[in-house]
Amino acid sequence: MSFLDYFRSKKNNTASVAKERLQIIVAHERGHRKQPDYLPALQQELLAVIRKYVDISDDMVQVEIDRTDTCSVLELNVTLPEK
Question: GO annotations under biological process (predicted)?
Answer without folding.
Answer: cell division; regulation of division septum assembly
